[in-house]
């Protein structure tokens, strides 16, 4: 006999999932209820980027970049916000490698203006300083200013906010941190100088990562990120990139990285065999994967030229002020 359905009860109704509302979707946009992982200590620029991307989110500091990837994969966080490139320092190569190693999807980007400050313990004057501590890129971005201030020594640490924290905890009197004004507030430090970066146009581009991709659209500017490899031969890269040029798709970024699983390729031209690097190519282009033009370009690339191709994400372009 057919199973008799259980009688309806108020408790079972409460357990049923409720339909999504427009308020839920607004919450997703603001980050309400989202846990967002970033690399660094509280007060890091990555935390500021997370708050810009998801203003109402709960931020989750992580010791390493890879820890942030793992936090999302293991459901300890819903998103990760990680730096990809800086207008002065260039690409953060570690994160390009991690994008390939992990299976997370890029679901957005955010650009953040980096404004470095010189932070020290209360009562310390600039003339007392002998050393500056910060992330290597932050130190490089302020090299000329630090030299002009008479600060001779540099000490590299994992992140800018971590430098501020260490100086406060150890009550260092001859060392300053290069970090954000927020880090000064969090760790009780004085700001001795503001905007000490050598170039005023200092912007870092961050990527937002999630376990699932978003549905691409065509009603707003979208960007797509891919990675691919090619057979060796004259003009192979030129031919591969032509699939975009012929369809008038603009490329905004291109980065090559040695293929870690196939680091060397042997070329035998009937003389002495030559060994050289085998490369992966990371490319960003201005089109949505919902656009048939972009779909045709990638289909052409995959069928005719690429030995490997993976779409890392198709996501809205950040058009806000950095």
Automatic annotation (TrEMBL):
Pfam families: PDT (PF00800). The keyword DNA-binding does not apply. Gene3D superfamilies: 3.30.70.260, Periplasmic binding protein-like II. Residues 35-211 form the Prephenate dehydratase domain. It is found in: Plastid, Chloroplast stroma. It comes from the Eukaryota. One of its GO terms (molecular function) is prephenate dehydratase activity. Pathway: Amino-acid biosynthesis; L-phenylalanine biosynthesis; phenylpyruvate from prephenate: step 1/1; Amino-acid biosynthesis; L-phenylalanine biosynthesis; L-phenylalanine from L-arogenate: step 1/1. It catalyses: prephenate + H(+) = 3-phenylpyruvate + CO2 + H2O; L-arogenate + H(+) = L-phenylalanine + CO2 + H2O. Its EC number is 4.2.1.91. One of its GO terms (biological process) is L-phenylalanine biosynthetic process. PROSITE patterns: ACT, PREPHENATE_DEHYDR_1, PREPHENATE_DEHYDR_2, PREPHENATE_DEHYDR_3. Residues 225-316 form the ACT domain. One of its GO terms (cellular component) is chloroplast stroma. InterPro entries: ACT-like_dom_sf, ACT_dom, Chor_mutase/pphenate_deHydtase, Preph_deHydtase, Preph_deHydtase_CS. It is an enzyme of class 4 (lyase). Keywords: Amino-acid biosynthesis, Aromatic amino acid biosynthesis, Chloroplast, Lyase, Phenylalanine biosynthesis, Plastid, Transit peptide. CDD domains: ACT_CM-PDT, PBP2_Ct-PDT_like. Converts the prephenate produced from the shikimate-chorismate pathway into phenylalanine. This is Arogenate dehydratase. It comes from Aegilops tauschii subsp. strangulata (Goatgrass).
